[in-house]
Specification:
Layout lengths: L2 H13 L4 H12 L8 H10 L4 H25 L1 H12 L2 H14 L2 H8 L4 H10 L4 H56 L1
Helix pairs in contact: 1-3, 1-9, 2-4, 3-4, 3-9, 4-5, 4-8, 4-9, 6-8, 7-8, 7-9
C-alpha cells in the first residue's frame, strides 16, 4: 500500500509553496503546545527542495518551537487545572502526563534535553515543566539546545544528501512510514 508515497509527494509540493516558511513556523510553534505532527515532516522536504536555505529553515523551526515551548510552559504553570488538565483527559493522555511527571521527578531538566531531541512528544514536557514549576530560564536553555540540535541535524542531513537523498527517500518512504506506524503503536502499547 503506497500511502506514504502519495503523502510524501504532497508534502514536497507544499514545501515549494510561497508560504511554506509560514506553515513551517506555525507547525513548529503549535507542535510544542498541542499539535501531534512534528515539524520535521515539513523541515526535511523544504531543506531538500531548497538546500541553500536549509539552515534558515532549521533556525525558523528552532525559534518557533522554543517559543511554543514557552507558551506550553506558561499553560502548565498558569492554566493547568482549568484548561490543560480537562483537555488532556478529553484526549485520553492522562497516563502520558503522569509518566512525564515521573520522568521530571527522576531526571529533572535533563528530560527536556532528551524530549527536545528525540521523537518523544515535546509538548508533554513543555506543559509538565510548567505544572512542576521548573525554573524557566534553564528550561528554555535546554529547549533551545535540544531543539536546535534536532532541527539543524535534520536540515543538515537533507542539505548534505541533496537530490540523491530525495531519490532514496522516495524509494523507501513507504517502508519507513509503515515502520514508524509500527513503532508508534509499539510505544503506545508499552507506555500504556
Amino acid at each position: 500500500m503506497k500511502i506514504f508515497s502519495v503523502l510524501y509527494d504532497k508534502v514536497l509540493r507544499w514545501s515549494a509553496h510561497p508560504h511554506a516558511s509560514r506553515y513551517l513556523v506555525s507547525m513548529s510553534f503549535c507542535e510544542a503546545i498541542f499539535w501531534p505532527i512534528p515539524p520535521d515532516v515539513m523541515l526535511a522536504p523544504m531543506s531538500l527542495a531548497k538546500p541553500q536555505k536549509a539552515w534558515h529553515f532549521a533556525l525558523l523551526t528552532t525559534a518557533a518551537s522554543v517559543l511554543g515551548g514557552a507558551v506550553g510552559f506558561a499553560l502548565g504553570w498558569l492554566l493547568f487545572e482549568p484548561v490543560v488538565q480537562p483537555f488532556i483527559h478529553w484526549v485520553g493522555y492522562d497516563h502520558q502526563l503522569v509518566k512525564a511527571q515521573q520522568w521530571f521527578s527522576q531526571y529533572g531538566l535533563w528530560i527536556v534535553l532528551l524530549a527536545g531531541f528525540s521523537p518523544l512528544p515535546y509538548k508533554f514536557f513543555t506543559v509538565t515543566a510548567g505544572v512542576m514549576q521548573m525554573m524557566f530560564l534553564p528550561f528554555m536553555l535546554m529547549s533551545l539546545v535540544s531543539r536546535a540540535a534536532r532541527f539543524f541535524l535534520v536540515a543538515g542531513l537533507m542539505k548534505l544528501g541533496g537530490a540523491r537523498m530525495e531519490e532514496k527517500l522516495r524509494h523507501y518512504i513507504d517502508w519507513l512510514g509503515w515502520a514508524t506506524v509500527l513503532l508508534a503503536v509499539a510505544a503506545y502499547l508499552i507506555l500504556r
